[in-house]
Specification:
alpha+beta; 2,3-Dihydroxybiphenyl 1,2-Dioxygenase, domain 1; 2 domains; four-stranded mixed β-sheet; 28% strand
Length: 199
């Protein structure tokens, strides 16, 4: 007789890293290291692919893996060409609006394409394509929650203080408005928490 186990909740998962199939490994490595500041932690061959491992955190051997083998042609997203046909977007969190401005300067200087600043109310974002058209998002959380999806252009000609005040005022008059901390407290009990294993 086989014993059965009753499971509660979901498996203990925490998102870790992702791999991108690429056409031009050298150009992609240069963009992710020179423009976005990743460090190459390893490289080699496996499964018929050339691999480059990239990280910005010494606790993570790799956060992104670049792997050869992407088909020469993939059709664009049929709903919106800013977003990818398979991977919709890859998002990176930054600490502050000045950091987001720095990313904007780096993208403009380093070959970012289709650069689009956006205000989601819950976050300030910059969307841009890497050299192979993958849609990247760089974002800063705001202090407020409003019902998503929500997007208006983000005007970087304004000061950080002006952006903050305009966003706060807009959020206060939007559906679902509440401080982000309160929203997080409400949603947390509905989620399966990740539990760090003892080492």
């Amino acid at each position: 007789m086989t014993a059965t186990t009753t499971r509660t909740g979901a498996a203990n998962l925490k998102f870790s890293h992702m791999g991108l199939s690429v056409k031009n490994l050298e150009a992609m490595e240069e963009f992710y290291t020179k423009v976005l500041g990743f460090t190459v932690t390893d490289r080699g061959l496996a499964g018929g692919m050339q691999l480059v491992f990239l990280s910005r955190d010494p606790l993570d051997h790799h956060q992104i893996v670049l792997a050869t083998g992407r088909p020469a042609q993939l059709p664009p997203n049929t709903a919106n060409p800013q977003f990818g046909p398979s991977i919709n977007q890859i998002s990176f969190k930054v600490a502050s609006l000045p950091d987001l401005r720095d990313i904007l300067e780096r993208l403009n200087a380093g070959g970012g394409d289709s650069v689009f600043p956006a205000n989601h109310g819950v976050a300030w974002s910059i969307y841009a394509h890497d050299p192979e058209g993958n849609n990247l998002e760089f974002f800063v959380d705001t202090d407020w929650y409003i019902k998503q999806p929500f997007l208006i252009p983000l005007d970087f000609s304004k000061t950080d203080e002006e952006i903050y005040e305009l966003t706060k005022s807009m959020c206060e008059s939007s559906e679902g408005f509440q401080p982000y901390g309160e929203w997080r407290d409400q949603i947390a009990p509905k989620m399966n928490p990740y539990v760090e294993a003892a080492r």
